[in-house]
Records
---
Amino acid sequence: MGIFRSGANEQRPVAGAAAVAGELPSIRLRDVEEADAEFLAELQSSVADDEWDGYDDAPEDMLSGGSYGGGSAVVELNDRTPVGSVSWIQVPHGPNRSSLAWCIGITVSPLFRGQRIGAAAQRLLYETLFRTSQANRVEAETDVDNIAERRSLELAGFTLEGIARRANWRRGVWHDMAVYSRLRTDAP
Ligand SMILES: CC(C)(COP(=O)(O)OP(=O)(O)OC[C@H]1O[C@@H](n2cnc3c(N)ncnc32)[C@H](O)[C@@H]1OP(=O)(O)O)[C@@H](O)C(=O)NCCC(=O)NCCS
């Protein structure tokens, strides 16, 4: 992907219609390098017990992004400090190539949360995916109660579409997921 720079009612957006996408921090996305192994392992362990993003499945039951035509990137500050990671996988909405959309995910290091880095990174990621692929749609799902991620998606310019009922199996319970999308034609 190279380097790119950026400048509860369940049925309603958590931020309301007035969520403003401006005022996001300046971050970059870059390819994962060998030297990132330690940072990414720490990042992964930081969400091992996360209420919204921690899974207790056996390793063989976890799906790798690589199996879905996706990828991942490191989120870093302009001084190259790594602060998180993003990933994306292809999801089909029909039996043809044109109906493939991207579904994205993110983790921000606990040390760097509270600065809207998640929104900035997810905005830069969909801009990059639209520029580098033919996809018409980038989507993201998160637990209906994951307010930080829902607010981040809304700040990044995603639209809430609805709730995927009991779609996510996590820690022995089925969870409702809030479904968000960003279309190629959505207003900047
Ligand atoms: C989700 C995540 C990426 C957001 O990280 P972040 O960019 O640091 O998010 P912030 O803390 O800046 O919060 C973003 C917005 O949500 C708001 N917010 C966060 N928690 C909130 C809460 N409990 N109630 C209300 N608003 C909340 C913040 O105030 C902020 O809005 P504002 O800047 O307008 O005030 C990060 O929390 C994370 O990595 N979580 C673990 C992994 C995860 O859940 N990933 C998504 C899985 S689908």
---
Amino acid sequence: MPKRLSFRSDIPRKRRALVATAVIMAILVAGLARMAAAQPIGAEGQAVPAALPPGPGHDTVVRVCSACHSPDIVATQHLSAAEWRNLVDLMVRQGASASDQEQAEIANYLTRSFPPNPPISASRPSPSGS
Ligand code: HEC
């Protein structure tokens, strides 16, 4: 008699475990689905400009500046004209081979494409609209 009772009371416990497992699975699946859905949105939402915008000097930069590292490295910097000239000069001293004219071309391209970061107030439309 006690045996039968304990056998019966075992059923709801198993069911509860099953329900709990199902709930946990549902939470996990929902979480994974959200992560999977968020990934492409995040990738598209990131404001990644074209690494090297087209324009005069582009091809020279790619040719001269990709000898030792990716030419895209220049996109990490936003410098003034003088600072770009210094950087190109530094790279030439590292071993970059470019004529004086090519160096000027590169510095001009980089200054035009990657100028100093504008102040935040100038780079965003004012929130008040107007
Ligand atoms: C002879 C090899 C060589 C060539 C060619 C070369 N670089 Fe570099 N560049 C380096 C090395 C080495 C470093 C990393 C060491 C350092 O920062 O001093 C570097 C780093 C950089 C960095 C990152 C600096 C920083 O502070 O993170 C920029 C930007 C850069 N180079 C731009 C250029 C440009 C523009 C050209 C083309 C004119 C160029 N490089 C060509 C060797 C080269």
---
Amino acid sequence: MERKISSKTIRRCLCIGAILFGGAASITSVMAEEYFNVVDGELQRPTGYREWVYVGTPVTPNDMNNGKAAFPEHHNVYIDPTSWSHWKKTGEFRDGTIIIKELVAVGSKAAVSGAGYFQGDFIGLEATIKSTSINPNEPGNWSYYSFSTPDHKSLTDTAKAFPAAACNACHAAAAADDFVFTQYYPVLRAGKGAGTLATGGHSSMLK
Ligand code: HEC
């Protein structure tokens, strides 16, 4: 027997659909807002950042720093995708930015391509966040965190912010853009306020 679907049933379905869809959309927009979580003054270790936007890899190898670089050795740096969009549009870091620096050891110094510094194991994780609500009194509203253990063999689950003198002071003195060392991140340099051009390959010029 054929089952009749009344227009009333369809209206009800559309209505439920709208509620579900509307709810999902608002959850997504809340989640897209910030990619970090601070509980009782401690930043919870962020996850998923290797799927954010990669901006560059400074390297301070131990063998060029008396055997013990402050942040050994490669630093793979990522910014959250919403803050990247904002950077492309405005050339500024939004309130709510998080930048991750994942430390990777020098694994090998020779490859078939030549002598060099090649990435080995992961050995640490640092982060900085810009938030007017969490850091109302910090310079530029940035705070700095380390999840690296002293032996560089594991990561902590949470981290307390360092005092401004320990981290921020050096960033304030030498970083090119709002406490961030954009001079060492070619992706951020090329992307600053550049809109679509920030995404690469749109010009025959190398920039
Ligand atoms: C003596 C100067 C100096 C001090 C002190 C310092 N940094 Fe940095 N930091 C740098 C430089 C230079 C870079 C970029 C190049 C690099 O990674 O080597 C950087 C980059 C970073 C980045 C990537 C985002 C950015 O702003 O460029 C994070 C995260 C970071 N540092 C965390 C920390 C933390 C946490 C501390 C305190 C424990 C700290 N830094 C102390 C010089 C410093």
